[in-house]
Amino acid sequence: MNVIESRDGELLLLQLANPPVNGLSFALRQALFEALERADADPGIAAVLIHGGPKAFSGGADIREFGQPQALAQPNLPALCARLDAMSKPVVAAIAGLALGGGLELALSCHYRLVVGDAQIGLPEVNLGLLPGAGGTQRFPRAVGLGLALEMVPSGQLRRAADLARQPDQHLFDRVCTADALLQAATDLARQVAAHRPLPRLRDRTAAPAPEALEAAEARCAALPYPAPLACVRALRGAVELPFDEGVAAERAGFQTLLTSPESAALRHAFFAERAAGKVPGIEADTPRRRLQQVGVLGAGTMGSGIATACLMGGLQVVLVEPDAAALARGVAALEKHVQAQVDKGRLSAERAQGLRANLNTSQSDAALADCDLIIEAVFEDMALKQSVFRRLDALAKPEALLATNTSTLNVDEIAAVTQRPHQVLGLHFFSPAAVMKLLEVVRGAATAPDVLASALAFGKQIGKTCVVAGVCDGFIGNRMIDRYLEQALFLLDEGCSPAQVDRAIEAWGFAMGPFRMIDLAGNDVSWRIRQQRAKDGTLRRAQVLADRLCELGRFGQKSGGGWYDYEGREAKPSKAVAALLQAHREQIGVQARSVSDAEIVDRLLLSLAVEGERLLAEGVALRASDIDLVYLSGYGFPRWKGGPMFEAQARGAEAVAARRREFAAVAHDDPAFWGGV
Ligand code: NAI
């Protein structure tokens, strides 16, 4: 039962009923189509009211049907909208919760629309590399004007219904109601307009033009590296330049083209990767979640301060502990700067900011952490220190409290082992800057209990992070792969590339930032110190002579005014000192510089990620390939429209990847063992 029918005198009420968001499944479309046909033919019915209950009018296409034949089976959404156009009786849409994508297109095809003020409204198809394909690009500009449609559709922006209803000369909503009054108001309106003719159809209106906005949007979207936003603009242009039916036909053609585009496939993969990541073996819907209301953060350095900020912004109570008074003051100042910036940018009201600040307590003594439900440790990266900290935390924290470490390289199991509660210990690996970066690797130790992991995932979600579960290994998912990628970047320098050539090639491919600009930003000294420590411990995988030399020159990166580049502020300039360093290094290792193509640079970097990703899967560190993709999309600036390193390699095909690996294994100064095994 996807559509619940009921009668109220001459009124037919149709309630969409396909939880959770009334996705427009084949069964729902068919039931609605048939109900409309019957209503049109039934002389006892004077008007029709469509609603979706209190939670959602409709969230659009049913994602469970994505890629399945049912998604496009007749009646498809365009056919349903055309059926509404052909109705001889008024149809009223009553919208609560949300009307998105196809859900909004359905509502736009009705004759009247009532809405609850806080309902979310938008056509976000562009986020999946598509355009609204059921008349949305033709009816929406006719409802709100081309200018606003150009702002919302190519960007996939959602707006509150009340804000849209305030627009001058809008025909989107006939009335804004409270949630309680919606159905009654819709029923009253349906009765009142039952005999009104002609029926007001958006298709019969003209859209208010906006020539300057159109030109600007076209220029902006033409510069983007993926086609959907520009296709949205072109389809919207049709709303002012073409008769309605021709505009719809052009929109449909654009939709079909995008549907088969690699970018849309990648974006849909990313969308499903986000949903899949929450499914973790051992965690069920009924696995108990602990309420983690009060969070303690130990260490107020770069990470501790950022983690405390993220928790505060997520509405949690935070106790920030740092023994060093100056470091504590710096940490609190950084936190305050972030909160104030949100206020200045209009993302946070001054009042709410005050409320958040009141949720922060600070102390120089770890005794202040005794009541916390979750304590996140972010002290220096040193096993002996972390173990001593965890012994203390175990003794002072309440018995049910969870203990988490933000370590990026140390073994979480060895840290958990010093406590009496290893089942309540896990890694929460944030990325810098922690208040901004979406990615959170949730590291499951050998002893971590399912309910602890489930609670940590719920915590991550509450503070707005994209959580990916990882097993224990050096670097977890993201950093273990990035190490191999950076190794390749250094091999490329050995062989004749400049840092700028490597960065340019991978940035042109779509990465937000190439490897050398990235490490200059993070600080070359960080990995240098890790290498030194590993050399001492005998755990260094591979010496990186060139990177060591750079650090020996004091070239740590942006913060020291020079790294792989020279810096004026944030601007990276090719460095003569680095060019000389490279030349001397090549002479020393006996390499004749060769010309390396951009295609080779890109493939070696990308496939280094995919090859290490395969190993992580084989070892069980990552649960699924799409989790690895999600790590790279949300934490490393991998272009979303390329889907992630695993998706990208899979799209090339196993044979093509294997052939490329054999080529790279034969490059003199690369690492044949790394590329090998194929
Ligand atoms: P940091 O050096 O900026 O801050 C560490 C802070 O811990 C200092 O303020 C220090 O005074 C404090 N501290 C030291 N011993 C302490 C103790 N016994 N009790 C309480 N506080 C103590 O270091 P950062 O960068 O914040 O790193 C912290 C942890 O986060 C490390 O384990 C690091 O590997 C990890 N991490 C760092 C990332 C980064 O990009 N910086 C990214 C992800 C993880």
TrEMBL record:
InterPro entries found in the cross-reference section: 3-OHacyl-CoA_DH_NAD-bd, 3HC_DH_C, 6-PGluconate_DH-like_C_sf, ClpP/crotonase-like_dom_sf, Enoyl-CoA_hyd/isom_CS, Enoyl-CoA_hydra/iso, NAD(P)-bd_dom_sf
GO biological process: fatty acid beta-oxidation
Residue ranges of domain 3-hydroxyacyl-CoA dehydrogenase C-terminal in the record: 475-567
Listed GO MF terms: (3S)-3-hydroxyacyl-CoA dehydrogenase (NAD+) activity; enoyl-CoA hydratase activity; isomerase activity; NAD+ binding
Principal subcellular localization: other
UniProt catalytic activity: a (3S)-3-hydroxyacyl-CoA + NAD(+) = a 3-oxoacyl-CoA + NADH + H(+)
Localization annotation: Peroxisome
EC number, as in UniProt: 1.1.1.35
Pathway(s) of this molecule: Lipid metabolism; fatty acid beta-oxidation
Enzyme class: oxidoreductase
Xref: PANTHER family: 3-HYDROXYACYL-COA DEHYDROGENASE-RELATED (PTHR23309:SF51), 3-HYDROXYACYL-COA DEHYROGENASE (PTHR23309)
Protein name: 3-hydroxyacyl-CoA dehydrogenase
